[in-house]
């Protein structure tokens, strides 16, 4: 193809261009119909199956104080909506949960970095941090109420004790998994000390960190719900835990079910709206997301 | 472009000077000598390959010259901090190809306004114009090594250390990259210390081939390669010298099986 008069350098250039073209594959997004079939349809079917099973089970149990029908729970939701309290319950919990999570983020990130990078701190606090992760933070509700009284600070204390270890540990394992080659490459480029931490270690540890954030949110939400259910006081404001407690004291199983479903729904929604996209973006931009 | 990248080489008499360098590591049977009394000079603008079988301490030697490790004895002097290129591309996957190069510029203190143009220029030098916004995983192996080369050149170091940079590539790509490296070396005037276990590659690229023996690594012999560039790996003089060096190398390796 090349003319006979080409110099070796031009020749290398054109061969190279050919090689580059041969070895580069165009990647695009799959069409929506495929996404719908693979990603959206299966969970919709799963939810439908659960609802059908629930409807079939309801007449068998035949005791609305034990198992309300899906329709009962739905009309309970409608009631709360018309009373204007439904969003208040949800927002009460979500705002507390997200604020607590942000606090945990602010504390857990430098803590994780310290544990990961400073040998003495790791030896001293690493095991405690891992241990705290396996301790259900509900255990802290009772002492927190005694120390802090019945107000919102109890909620935040319990969220922090649940989420900070997850976030810090996620960052630690992220830093531990940074390939040594990146550190060497960074050092030859002049990224040492704090510059190395900022330009190499932190971005390289991002996938582990994001996994820690995801888990940290799950722990935040779980801890918060436990605290809301256990610590009851008029000063605490509205929350989904309070809604569940209202259902319990009124012997309304439909309300209890509504509260449980909403807790589940919010937990999933926050994960789907914030953390899963964040994780996918981090992994995809590094080519770590295997296309299924 | 060649003028901006060319080095003021006249001021120093060497790009790297290794004098009686030895390195030992703590091993299971006490101190293990890895490198023994290595003395090499790399002149400004010179292309030297270090050739040896496994266990000759090639990578250890490059680490010492790069300043990532310290010699047990002897001294190493380089003209500024050397750039280092690895067998794996070692590009940062969280950055695009262009941003990888810009990070090197940034760490060297190049002002923000100049970085983009400089990165594009370096990508042009390795014939990857248009790859600026590409993610590392979107590039082929050969393209990644070229971006890595551009990143190393972004350091504007007088000495480029290369640790078997083409060993993991397929033969066709490797041949092309040999041509490219020769061209870029000539254009930029950078000194290169290139480590390989591939005899033909060493002869194809270098002005001087230094053969290391194994366990411990010592300088076994040195050849000056007088074959004019551009060379091809199939050229008869390249093959001839390769054969000669291979025989000596095999002799060195054979000694290890005889006790």
Describe, in plain words, how this protein is organized in 3D.
- Chain A has one domain: MetI-like fold (Orthogonal Bundle), CATH 1.10.3720.10.
- Chain A has helices at residues 8-23, 32-61, 70-83, 86-117, 119-134, 141-148, 152-176, 180-189, 193-204, 206-230, 240-249, 253-285.
- Chain A has 12 helices and no strands.
- The radius of gyration of chain A is 26 Å and the shape is flat.
- In chain A, 32% of the residues are buried.
- The two termini of chain A are 39 Å apart.
- In chain A, helix 4 packs across helix 10.
- Chain B has 259 residues and is α/β, with parallel strands linked by helices.
- Chain B folds into 2 domains: 2-82 and 158-255, Rossmann fold, CATH 3.40.50.300; 93-156, no CATH class.
- Chain B contains 8 helices and 9 strands.
- In chain B, the strands form 2 sheets. Chain B has a 6-stranded mixed β-sheet, sandwiched between helices.
- In chain B, a hairpin with a 2-residue loop joins strand 1 and strand 2.
- The radius of gyration of chain B is 18 Å and the shape is globular.
- The N and C termini of chain B lie far apart (55 Å).
- The interface between A and B is medium-sized, with 32 and 38 residues.
- Chain A: It is a multi-pass membrane protein.
- Chain A: InterPro entries: MetI-like (IPR000515), MetI-like_sf (IPR035906).
- Chain A: Its main location: membrane.
Task: Summarize, please.
With 292 residues, chain A is mainly α. Chain A has twelve helices and no strands. Chain B is globular, with a radius of gyration of 18 Å.
Summarize the SSE layout with pairings.
The complex is a heterodimer of chains A (292) and B (259).
Chain A: H1 8-23, H2 32-61, H3 70-83, H4 86-117, H5 119-134, H6 141-148, H7 152-176, H8 180-189, H9 193-204, H10 206-230, H11 240-249, H12 253-285
Chain B: H1 2-5, E1 16-27, E2 30-42, E3 47-52, H2 58-66, E4 73-78, E5 83-85, H3 97-107, H4 112-125, H5 141-154, E6 159-163, H6 171-188, E7 191-196, H7 199-205, E8 208-212, E9 219-224, H8 236-255
Parallel strand pairs in B: 3-7, 3-8, 5-6, 6-7
Antiparallel strand pairs in B: 1-2, 1-4, 8-9
Helix pairs in contact in B: 3-4, 3-5, 4-5, 7-8
Subcellular location (chain A): Cell membrane
Protein name (chain A): Sulfate ABC transporter permease
Family (chain A): Belongs to the binding-protein-dependent transport system permease family.
């Amino acid at each position: 193809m090349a003319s006979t008069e080409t110099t070796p350098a031009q020749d290398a250039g054109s061969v190279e261009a050919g090689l580059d073209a041969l070895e580069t594959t165009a990647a695009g997004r799959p069409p929506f119909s495929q996404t719908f079939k693979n990603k959206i349809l299966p969970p919709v079917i799963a939810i439908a199956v659960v609802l059908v099973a629930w409807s079939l089970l309801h007449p068998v149990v035949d005791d609305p104080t034990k198992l309300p029908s899906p329709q009962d729970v739905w009309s309970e939701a409608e009631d709360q909506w018309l009373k204007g309290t439904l969003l208040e319950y949800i927002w009460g919990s979500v705002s507390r949960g997200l604020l607590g999570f942000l606090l945990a983020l602010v504390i857990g990130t430098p803590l994780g970095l310290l544990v990961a990078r400073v040998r003495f701190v790791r030896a001293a606090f690493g095991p405690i941090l891992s241990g705290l992760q396996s301790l259900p933070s509900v255990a802290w509700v009772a002492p927190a109420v005694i120390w802090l009284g019945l107000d919102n600070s109890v909620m935040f204390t319990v969220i922090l004790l649940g989420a900070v270890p997850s976030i810090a540990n996620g960052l630690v394992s992220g830093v531990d998994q940074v390939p040594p080659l990146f550190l060497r490459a960074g050092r030859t480029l002049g990224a040492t000390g704090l510059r190395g931490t900022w330009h190499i270690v932190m971005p390289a540890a991002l996938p582990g960190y994001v996994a820690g954030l995801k888990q940290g949110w799950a722990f935040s939400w779980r801890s918060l719900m436990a605290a809301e259910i256990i610590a009851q006081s008029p000063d605490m404001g509205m929350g989904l835990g309070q809604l569940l407690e209202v259902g319990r004291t009124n012997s309304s199983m439909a309300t209890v079910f509504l509260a449980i479903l909403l807790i589940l729904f919010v937990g999933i929604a926050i994960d789907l709206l914030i953390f899963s996209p964040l994780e996918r973006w981090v992994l995809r931009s590094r080519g770590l997301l295997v296309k299924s | 472009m060649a003028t901006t990248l060319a080095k003021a080489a006249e001021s120093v008499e060497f790009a790297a000077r290794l004098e009686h360098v030895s390195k030992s590591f703590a091993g299971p049977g006490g101190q293990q000598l890895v490198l023994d009394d290595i003395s090499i000079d790399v002149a400004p603008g010179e292309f030297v390959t270090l050739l040896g079988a496994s266990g000759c301490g090639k990578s250890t030697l490059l680490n010492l010259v790069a300043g990532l490790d310290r010699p047990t004895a002897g001294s190493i002097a380089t003209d500024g901090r050397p750039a280092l290129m690895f067998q794996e591309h070692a590009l940062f996957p969280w950055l695009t190809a262009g941003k990888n190069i810009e990070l090197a510029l940034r760490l060297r203190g190049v002002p923000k306004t100049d970085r983009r143009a400089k990165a594009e220029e370096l990508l042009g030098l390795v014939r990857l114009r248009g790859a600026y916004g590409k993610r590392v995983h979107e590039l082929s192996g050969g393209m990644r090594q070229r971006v890595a080369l551009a990143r190393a050149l972004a350091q504007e170091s007088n000495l480029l250390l290369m640790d078997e940079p083409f060993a993991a590539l397929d033969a066709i790509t490797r041949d092309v990259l040999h041509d490219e490296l020769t061209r870029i070396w000539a254009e930029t005037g950078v000194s290169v210390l290139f480590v390989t276990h591939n005899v033909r590659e060493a002869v194809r690229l270098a002005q001087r081939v230094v053969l290391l023996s194994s366990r411990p690594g010592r300088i076994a012999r040195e050849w000056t390669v007088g074959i004019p560039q551009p060379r091809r790996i199939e050229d008869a003089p390249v093959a001839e010298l390769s054969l000669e060096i291979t025989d000596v190398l095999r002799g060195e390796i054979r000694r290890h099986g005889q006790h």
